Amino acid sequence: LSLPQIEVFKQGLNQKLQEGQEKLHQMWLDWSRKSSKERGDESSEEPEEMESLALLMACSITQQLQGTCHKVVSAIQGLPSSLQDKAKQSLSAIEELHASFSAASSFQDLSSSVLTQGQKQLAVIQGCMEELLDYLQNNTPLSWLVGPFCPGKKEV
After folding, report:
1. How many Å apart are CA 118 and CA 129, to the nearest integer?
2. What is the CATH number of domain 3-27+50-138?
3. Where are the domains of the chain?
4. Residues 52-63: pLDDT tens digits?
5. Residue 79 in contact with residue 141, Cβ under 8 Å?
6. Residue 149 and residue 156: Cα distance in Å, rounded?
7. Tens digit of pLDDT for each residue in 17-56?
8. Calpha distance 150→130 (Å, rounded)
């Protein structure tokens, strides 16, 4: 990875997180508007549908983050162990959060502590990725620039 590629990755990560937050916020606004306009006329299924969509979106976002974290963990072999440990902790946190969302059939199935911890874990994951990208901008491993150095095989 070159410095421009690192910056593009960092912007992409931040954009994906922001897009996910914006989608969830928009869904919440849409549901709030509908429920306030149609208080007496609204069927009981509509809020459940919105909740179901929000839960599916949360599962999808955490699954995408899980895949990204897997790639990051495998790509940073050889970097300082403190960074590797933080990336592995991030992966573990997102796996737990994804498992919680996947197992739930509604938000009532999730305890408030899961939602609160999930929000904190996402902030920690974002901080970890930013720290990793800042490190790479200042200390790009030589093998990433020119490839791994392997002794050539001698033919007899």
Report:
1. 16
2. 1.20.120.340
3. 3-27+50-138
4. 777 888 888 888
5. yes
6. 22
7. 777 767 766 766 676 666 666 655 544 456 677 777 778 8
8. 31
**Cα angle vertex 109, ends 106, 113, to 5°?**
120
Contact between 62 and 110 (Cβ < 8 Å): no
Look over the chain and give the mean of its residue pLDDT values, rounded to a whole number.
76
Cβ-contact 55, 104 below 8 angstroms: yes
> Where would I find the H helices in the chain?
3-37, 45-75, 81-103, 112-138, 142-146
Tokens coding 54: 């929000």
Q: What is the pLDDT of residue 91?
A: 92
The identity of residue 61, as a single letter, is I
Structure tokens at 80: 């300082």
